[in-house]
Amino acid sequence: MKKATQQQTKEHNRNLVLKTILERDSISRAEVARVTGLTRTTVSDIVTDLLDAGLVEEVGVGSSKGGKSPILLSLVPDSRCLIGLDLAQYQFRGAVVNLRGAICEMVTMPVTGRDGEALALVYTILDRLVRASCRPIVGIGVGTPGLVNTGQGVVISAVNLDWVNLPLAALLQERYRLPVTVLNDSQAAAMGEYTYGEAHSYGKNLVVINARHGIGAGVIINGRLFQGDGGGAGEIGHVVVVPDGGLPCRCGNNGCLETVASAQALVKRAQALGAPFAAPTTPSAPEAVTLDAIERAFHAGDPVARQIVLEAARYMGMAVSSLVGTLNIQHIVLVGEVTRFGEPWLAAVRETMARTSLSRLAQETRVEMGQLGGNGIVLGASAVLANNYSALYEPQALQAAGDWRPAGLNARSALKYP
Ligand SMILES: [Zn+2]
Question: N or C: lower Cβ tally within 10 Å for the chain?
C-alpha cells in the first residue's frame, strides 16, 4: 500500500474534524478530539485553520466537567453556498442553498424545448444563480430524469429531454469552473430526504420513491447512495407490472409501473374513463382533465376519481412490496406530485404493501410521506456537495461575486458531444 503523504494526512484529518463539527449543532475541541481519535494539538491546529477559512466560529461556552469551561465551535451555515438543480418534466428549478439546507435564492423556468434548448435553459438558470450568489460556491449538483453515470457525470439517456450520452458535468464544469455532480432525480430526492428530512434520525438506510411524471426510487445504504452497477438502481418505473395488455410506455415496453401509477398515468386513465366525473368541479372535455382536476374531484368524493387514484396507489403498494422483499430497508418515504392525494392514497399504498409482503417484514416497515415538498430534489442535489469537505475548505475561486462571465460556450456548440 502506498504511504499517505503528509499533505494527504493533513487533508484527511481536516476533513474528519470538519465533518464532526458539521454533523453537530456545536461541539468543543476536546470533544472533537475524543470523537475523531486525533490528538488535542492536531485538532487545535486544524480548528485554527477552519476559523481562518471562516467555515467555523466559536459560539459560546459549554458546561464544564470540572476545570475550565470549554469553548464551543459551530459551522457557519452561510460561509459557503451550494447550487442545486431539479430538471423536472415541465419546469426546471434551481436554488442557491446554504450549508444547512436553507434556500437563499430560487429560479424556476418552464421547459419549452428539448435537447440543446433544454441545455440552454440549464445555463440560463445557473448563470442567474451564480451571479446572485455573494459567497464562495462549493459546487453544482444536478438532479435529472433518466439514466445517469454519476462517476463520469454523463446523462446516458433522458427521454423527455432528448439527451443521449450528454456529458453534462463536463459541460457545466467548463462553463462555471466548479465541481459538478449529476444524479438521477430520484436519487437526488433520496439524498434530500436523508440529509434534511426526519429520515436520518431513523437510521442509515432509506428508500425514497419519487412518483411524478415518471417513477423512480433512490436507495441509501449505510448513509451512502447506492446506484447499482450501471447507475440504474431504483429504476422501478419501468418494471412491467401489467404483463398482458398493458398500456405503451415511453421506454418502448408495455405495462410499466409508470403507465399505471404515475401522475401522467392518472391523467390518461381519467381521460380514458371518459370524465366528466360526478363531481361538478371537474371539467368535461377529456383534454381538460388535469391532475389538478382529478385532485379536486378526488377530494370532493367523486367515485370515479377515487377509483382511479386508489387503483394507482395499489400498484404503488406492490412496487413498495418488491423493494421491501429485495432490500428489507425499514423506512420508505414517498415523494412527488402523486403524493398530493394524501392520506387515502398513502393508506392504500400501505394496505397493499402489507397484503403483498412477508407479514413480518411489512410489520417492521414504515411507509411515510416526504417532508421537503417540491424542493427535495434541489436540496438533495446540493447536499451531495456538502459532503465534499475538501471543496468546502477550499472552494474553487472562480468568481468574485458579480464579475463572473460564462466561459464562452454557447448551448449550440456545447452540444457537439460524442
Ligand atoms: Zn417503461
Answer: N
- Residue 413: pLDDT band by 50, 70, 90 thresholds? very low
Q: Is 41 exposed, middle or buried (0-12, 13-18, 19+ CB in 10 A)?
A: exposed
State in Å: Cα 235 to ligand 1 middle. 10
Measured in Å, residue 164 CA sits from the centre of ligand 1 at 17
**pLDDT tens digits, 21-37:** 998 999 999 999 999 99
Window from 168-177, 190-199, 361-370 with minimum mean pLDDT:
190-199
DSSP letter (8 states) at residue 328: -
Q: From 341, 335, 351, select the one nearest 301 (Cα to Cα).
A: 341
Question: How would you classify residue 37: left for phi > 0, otherwise alpha for psi between -120 and 50, otherwise beta?
Answer: left
Q: How many CA atoms lie within 13 A of 273 on its CB side?
A: 19
β-pairing, 206-211 vs 147-149, is: unpaired
Residue bearing the bigger pLDDT, 398 or 369: 369
DSSP code string of 188-241: HHHHHHHHHSGGGGG-S-EEEEEESSSEEEEEEETTEEE--TTS-TT-GGGSBS
Residue 220 scores a pLDDT above 60? yes
Please state which CATH class domain 79-190+376-398+407-414 belongs to: alpha beta
Looking at domain 201-370, its CATH architecture is 2-Layer Sandwich (3.30)
pTM of structure: 0.88
Q: Is 45 exposed, middle or buried (0-12, 13-18, 19+ CB in 10 A)?
A: middle
Ligand 1 center to 254 CA (angstroms): 7
Instruction: Say which residues have a Cβ less than 8 Å from residue 359's Cβ, sequence separation at least 6.
Output: none
Q: How far is the CA of 215 from the centre of ligand 1 (A)?
A: 10
Cα-to-centroid distance, 250 and ligand 1 (Å): 6
3-state DSSP assignment of residue 55: coil
Each domain of the chain, given as residue ranges in start order, spans 6-75, 79-190+376-398+407-414, 201-370
> CB count, 10 Å around CB of 214?
28
Residue 2 DSSP label: P
Q: What's the pLDDT at 388? A: 84
The one-letter code for the residue type at 330 is: Q
Q: Give the mean model confidence (pLDDT) for residues 31-44.
A: 96
Answer with the residue of higher pLDDT: 275 or 335: 335
Say which CATH class 6-75 falls into.
Answer: mainly alpha
Per-residue pLDDT for 283 more than 60?
no
